[in-house]
Design a protein that fits this description.
Largest sheet: 6 strands, mixed
Number of domains: 1
Distance between the termini: 19 Å
Shape: globular
Strand content: 15-25%
Order of helices and strands: EHHEHEHHHEHEE
Number of helices: 7
CATH superfamily: Phosphoglycerate mutase-like
Number of strands: 6
Structural class: alpha/beta
Strand order of the largest sheet: 3-2-4-1-5-6
């Protein structure tokens, strides 16, 4: 059974500024490029045969660097794009707190209840990402896969495969350039291992 390696994109200027990049065209910071090159070195002997990434520029850049290092193709995958909260895109966390004070505390303290018109919920993010991962696992006969995405998407995946609830969202720590390995175990269950 194939393994899927989950990698968060390299650090960006928005990460450094505590800014919600969302679906903006945020690029990798030079430190982020270096970070991803180090990730690639760590993944060289894992048998990865292809890389999938969300369509945001920072994930595409990260995936292309990794694909080049591992000598494997990269494919964009809409289902692992960042959460859609368009009115927050590009704002710092402080600006979100000031401009959207009624909704931001819910996002921080009770993310499982966060619902706004025209925005995605964490449950919706989880459903689309899990659906994509399960399809990948079902179709992959040999070799392992690499999925490059965002903090929110990866947290949702880890919660699902560790059989935790959305309310535990903030308990999952995933740094830029971190690697988690998703593998199938007996009885159809899956495990997550941090590398």
């Amino acid at each position: 059974m194939a393994k899927i390696y989950l990698v968060r994109h390299g650090v960006t200027q928005a990460n450094k500024e505590n800014r919600f990049a969302g679906r903006t065209d945020e690029e990798l910071h030079p430190e982020g490029k270096h970070q991803i090159l180090q990730v690639g070195e760590r993944l060289k002997k894992t048998g990865i045969t292809s890389v999938y990434c969300g369509p945001a520029k920072r994930t595409v850049q990260s995936a292309e660097l990794l694909g080049s290092l591992l000598n494997v193709p990269c494919f964009p995958l809409q289902e692992i794009d960042e959460i859609h909260i368009p009115h927050w895109d590009g704002l710092t966390k402080d600006e979100i707190r000031q401009q959207y004070n009624e909704e931001y505390p819910t996002w921080l303290k009770n993310p499982e209840t966060f619902r706004l018109p025209g925005c995605e919920t964490l449950k919706q993010v989880q459903e689309r990402a899990v659906g994509a991962v399960n399809q990948m696992l079902a179709q992959q006969n040999s070799g392992n896969l690499l999925l490059v995405s965002h903090l929110i998407v990866l947290r949702c995946l880890v919660l699902y495969y560790q059989e935790l609830e959305i309310k535990d969202f903030r308990s999952i720590k995933i740094d830029n350039g971190s690697i988690n390995c998703l593998s199938a175990e007996t009885m159809g269950r899956k495990s997550i291992q941090t590398m």
